[in-house]
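Bench notes, afternoon.
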Amino acid sequence: MIRGENLSKRYGDTVALAATDIHIKSAATTAIMGGSGSGKTTMLRLLSGLIKPTTGHIWYGDEDLSTISDKRLYALRESMGMLFQYSALLNSLNVYDNIAFPLHEHTDLDESVIRTMVSMKLEQVGLRGFEHLMPSELSGGMAKRVAFARAIAMDPKIVFFDDPTSGLDPISAGVITTLIRDTS
């Protein structure tokens, strides 16, 4: 499904990721492991097309994310979900609007359909009825679950998880791990 060849990323003199190859099969769970600062987040950002590699190619199916147009990359992102390390919820939007954001951005669905989809995703992560809360009113575990619901809102073919249990207590980490396993 995704193949990275000779991927590297530099920021000036800093090497964020040295030349690396990776192959992620369809319908597989793949873990990228390494110490702090070893390039795990950089790898995920490359694989999802959020940043371009300094060297190498990222193949998503038969398309090279490192050379396609921004318009095509934007369209491909409809089939990708991302759970960011620190949730990355939009602080000015409530839970409903955070989850509905990709649906509004990438579809022409009627608001009643979006409302139903958001409700279903919140039910899936155990937070139905919390649509009105703002990110500042959520615990760390709740914020991760909202971010998880947003990541799967479009029913993507692939979901990237960047350190999904960091900063969570063991119970919340277990909930997120179970959600990941159950949606794989």
